[in-house]
Amino acid sequence: MIKQVLISIVFGAAVLTVGILIGHFGITKSGSSSPSWVKDVAKDVDEDFVEKFMSTVDNIQIQENLRELTKVPHMATTAGDEETVNLMLKRWQDPSTGLDQAWREEYLVHLSFPDPKNPNKVTVVSPSDTVLHTAREKEKSYTPDQDDPEVVQPYAAYSPPGHPQGKLVYANQGKPGDYQKLNETVDLRGTIAITRYGGAGRAAKAINAAPYGVIGVLVYTDPLDINDGLMSDVNETYPHSWYMPPSGVERGSFNTHYGDMRTPYLAAKDETYRIPVEDITGIPPIPIQPIGFEDAYILICALGGEAAPSVWQGAFNCTYNFGGPGFTNTSAFNNSDVRLDIFNNNVLKNSSNVMGIIRGSVEPDRYVIYGNHRDSWVHGAIDPSSGTSVMLEITRVLGQMVKQGLWRPRRSIIFGSWGAEEFGLIGSAEYTEQYFAKLSERTIAYINVDIAVFANASLRASGMPSVQNVLFKAAKQVKAAGLDTSVYDNWIQYFNRTSPAHGIIPRVGYLTGAGSDYAAFVHYLGITSMDISYIYDRSKTKARIYPAYHTAYDTFDYASKYIDPGFVSHQAVARTAGNVLIRLADSLVLPLNCSDYAESLEDYLKTAVRLYEDKLQAKGISMEPLKRAVANFRSAATHLDQVILTSDLVNETPMTIRRINDQLMLLDRAFLDPLAFPDKYAYRHVIWASSSAGKQTFPGLADAYANAELTGQPRDWDKVHYHLSVLSQAIEGAANTLVDVI
Amino acid sequence: MIKQVLISIVFGAAVLTVGILIGHFGITKSGSSSPSWVKDVAKDVDEDFVEKFMSTVDNIQIQENLRELTKVPHMATTAGDEETVNLMLKRWQDPSTGLDQAWREEYLVHLSFPDPKNPNKVTVVSPSDTVLHTAREKEKSYTPDQDDPEVVQPYAAYSPPGHPQGKLVYANQGKPGDYQKLNETVDLRGTIAITRYGGAGRAAKAINAAPYGVIGVLVYTDPLDINDGLMSDVNETYPHSWYMPPSGVERGSFNTHYGDMRTPYLAAKDETYRIPVEDITGIPPIPIQPIGFEDAYILICALGGEAAPSVWQGAFNCTYNFGGPGFTNTSAFNNSDVRLDIFNNNVLKNSSNVMGIIRGSVEPDRYVIYGNHRDSWVHGAIDPSSGTSVMLEITRVLGQMVKQGLWRPRRSIIFGSWGAEEFGLIGSAEYTEQYFAKLSERTIAYINVDIAVFANASLRASGMPSVQNVLFKAAKQVKAAGLDTSVYDNWIQYFNRTSPAHGIIPRVGYLTGAGSDYAAFVHYLGITSMDISYIYDRSKTKARIYPAYHTAYDTFDYASKYIDPGFVSHQAVARTAGNVLIRLADSLVLPLNCSDYAESLEDYLKTAVRLYEDKLQAKGISMEPLKRAVANFRSAATHLDQVILTSDLVNETPMTIRRINDQLMLLDRAFLDPLAFPDKYAYRHVIWASSSAGKQTFPGLADAYANAELTGQPRDWDKVHYHLSVLSQAIEGAANTLVDVI
């Protein structure tokens, strides 16, 4: 009996134990078990998904995208532009490969076009009013693309109309110093100046000229600057190579500021207040017109006067003279004038952005924005449609995954196909003005891929220093086009630097100007941004940019033959940019590194101290606050890095993750000061603003210092001190956002 | 055997079941059970804790705080100020009732003081240079407080030094229209103008005078404006009542902008760039000095010339004449001048803020800021120490709970004891400049309690419309001092309005000016703010403010006898403000209501349409964009309200709560435009900026319209259109932040 009882007890205990174990481990609790979102909020980027994305990105799809995008010229607001709007909408609204939502947004913007009925003319006119020479009005045809009636005549957008006539002079690149130099020898009053592209902004070539009495300006691309000196279309230039044919003309927007000119800081809606056209600043005060080097050759080689300095000489087989002013008396143009007949019109036209979104699952109120402009000057196969064809492939692959329920990003992704970029980054700028508060509060980062492939040698990337690491991570995972190495390993061969923290690494550039649609994001909103492309081997060509840039030769034929046969560099860019995009959207902790930011600030500081400290000390201005600010930034960044490294983030409360991510997301916002650059339109980021001083250091400080040195005025030294305080306070303020939050 | 087997099976099954049940329900799972933070992140405000807080707030503690704070005068940067700094630090660092941390922050700021060795003088001087009358240099003593050697002589801070002498004129309140009117009758060149307080800012009384050639200004408080006409200290004024004695003088800062004047937009650190003193704007260009009505009576009643208009007449038993200029020939002062000898000095001095924090448990990176300035003009029992004694009681009660481990707020609480407010809100402004990015990104709300108790009749509150609801909730839970009713029910008797949404409710004022330390938070940072106090019964007195304001009579004796005997109104303010503070810090969803904001915008719109639409239409300027913006804001607010109401928030992912709270927190930030008011220093909030047009509508629109009507210039009508666009875009932008986040 005792034995039986004992057995029963042991048996019972055993069964009870089994029961307890089953009950505890075998059955999922409903009451106190974790809510379903606990796992979701802790989810990190899925490397398998990243792999899958990259392997799905297809070069042939990109090629076919480009073929479709470049069927016709699609200059902003033209019928061709409207076709691309509809193409974007169709793709992004596709039920099986589209995004969650896509729509268009219109702005009524100030544009400038030539008059198709009265083409602009450049002529050489004899004293008896005989036209001795007429510059070519249209680029020469080599393929049917150039014959498209929608190819716009080469012109300088925003040049005023007018009919100036005068003696020709050669003004090199049209920089302030160029006109100053020229004016020492030649009386410039009443002259027409011919300048070459490069060295100064397009509008600047006319703005710098006017004070000397110059009444009209021509601009051309010297074969030295774009064609490695080659000039003949018999066997040297396109269609025989990627070089610009003699009649090729770079079109462009001749302006200084970005965004719609008539609605500064305001989205250009129908009823928005518009400043009078005559109040617009930063555009040419005198007529200006671009011409091909075929015509420039004829004009320049006939110039009289003294020989220009050697650095002014280009690739033509003649001496570039200043001009007498005018032509040499041994030329057929002796005593003749050059005459410009410019018929450009200003118009208000509706330009569209096309927007598309993928809604985030966990943090829909955090945005990663990916953008590219849609408008071109002519067919724009490279600028911008190489970028658009890449963007369409990224959205196709991601859209498909979303539609199939295989993936949804943690954060929301916004795609922007910007309008009217060529006229001054208008679509992206208006977008940021309209949604200023929302975008400022919620945007993680902006990725810009405008010209995706300049050439097929190497990746090139620019951005805030904090994006360096995620760019590296992505570039290491992508195979370089046609090579047995990664994009990263290839990149580091072409662009590199030695980092105190990381050793030899690829050099990521800075976004200090307004060269593409990142401008408003970087400078006006202070959003962490990057610009990604593939580019050429500088050791093999001195071309300023790919030679068909802004000409009628930037076509599918040109791109597929000379820029990226097989579209494998396009594919590498799509994989790299898409990889970065997914990491920004899906990573639990944002892949932005503030210590890399500190390294750049230290680098800028070192230069500033080296260049300025002695003289500033002599003026009683201390650089200690700036040094302290940078040191505080460094120690705050190190601290935040440590917090991220040492935390068990997957098991942390989601509030901790969000807090860290907010610190990383908002870091660049802390560098904004809307009053820091009173003379620069919409530049608010005190670290990355444009600068004319040409020093690799804090832009406002460099410019203020250069000005004070020039004038020697105590008030200008005060301005240096003032900007030092602005800068130190901004860096201290940014450091304050990185330390423990309370 | 079968039976035994059966019994064993049944027994075994039963034991197994018990085991399963124990295993499932009896033992907490460690693996898949909820992480400990799941409950924390969903916790809402604890009403029992709110009750406990309110019942612990003690009137006698407040009284003793006030007694200690007012032992000596504590004008900014004096030894008395340093004593209060140390008191705050001692209290906030107390191991059993202090905060988590407390520290001081110093700024080197531009202040203005009289010279103790050369007191300012106001005299009547005969043509033979005999001094016929000297205005009292110190206020008369009624208690030992007035004898304290640290009582500063009455003066106008930031008045320039100087010795103007001229004929006296009476200029009413020194408004632009007052001088214009006076100038029609009297040649003002070389005169001294006497003005009364009210109607125009202090500095404006001198700024408005200078263009007419006035060389010096006096200012006094007319008994009509402060004492309900009473004048005698034999039985009418303090120490017999709360009224100002005849020798009482309101001191003050005579400036227009707020913050340290020499470091606009920059925190005034030692090495910060300072503008030259001569570049400071908004301060008196000519000497100005305040005097008591005892002296003003003697001067004004001796004035010659025509009788001033009836609205210019005050309480003196004589006719207020314009002045001949100068005195009537029937007076002893016939032909005499008035002479000012002003010896004020500008100095740079270190002023301290004292800061204290309670770290938040769940969202430490969200701040509720509670502030009050610490500096007074003399003993400052009411201004500001009534507020400081309330703040110290709130921190004592909350600090105790924290130290005992009974409570820790969800969000962080920051307490600020600001320095040098009396000189132009300097401490709070410098703080916001130094920590601009951090505070902009993370601050939920700012609560200002400066003068806690003006008088003991009713609560008075001002703030953004979104705080109305939480103010009501708190006020309903607090018992009105000495009454059998709630603060809310008492409040609604004194201030009320009919709301379309809520019916008759207490009227919450707007923070459109820069009257206290909320200014930088509201206007510069766009942080949702409120200002809370107890105030008098307007039906019982016409006093412009409590009569001892900025005089040597603002003492503990005065406060405890005439303002709040028993300190029960102080207690009611502490309970109300503390209740609001706890709700902002602890509520799961922030108690800020955006639909109430919509109601205010609609109200402003209605007024704007009524006042401006016809004329604007005639000028071709449409108000439709503004109407659309307000309608969009309303519908977005309604939508967000619905989302909050219909969500099961306690069971929602914490990311959803945070998203909604971010929308509510950042709402006011969306109304900022740093370029909206180019002529107003540090005013960026397009809805609440100051306005001189005196209309209950959008300030920039009202001012631009008034100016265009005045000048009739097309360019000024353009400015109206421009501001309409700025305003519409800001409201649209704010609406965009309230709709679904993607």
How does this structure look, described?
- Chains A, B: This is Aminopeptidase NAALADL1.
- Chains A, B: Residues 165-253 form the PA domain.
- Chains A, B: It comes from Collichthys lucidus.
- 2 copies of one chain form a homodimer.
- Chain A is globular, with a radius of gyration of 30 Å.
- In chain A, helix 13 packs across helix 14 (487-494) and helix 19 packs parallel to helix 22.
- In chain A, strands 1-12-14-13-15-19-16 form a 7-stranded mixed sheet, sandwiched between helices.
- Chain A folds into 4 domains: 2-33; 47-112 and 347-586, Zn peptidases (Aminopeptidase, 3-Layer(aba) Sandwich), CATH 3.40.630; 115-343, Glucose Oxidase, domain 1 (3-Layer(bba) Sandwich); 594-738, Transcription Elongation Factor S-II, Chain A.
- The longest helix of chain A has 25 residues, at 2-26.
- Chain A has 742 residues and is an alpha/beta fold.
- The first copy, chain A, is built from 22 helices and 19 strands.
- In chain A, helix 7 links the parallel strand 7 (192-196) and strand 8 (216-220).
- At the A-B interface, helix 1, helix 2, strand 13, helix 12 and helix 20 of A face helix 1, helix 2, strand 13, helix 12 and helix 20 of B.
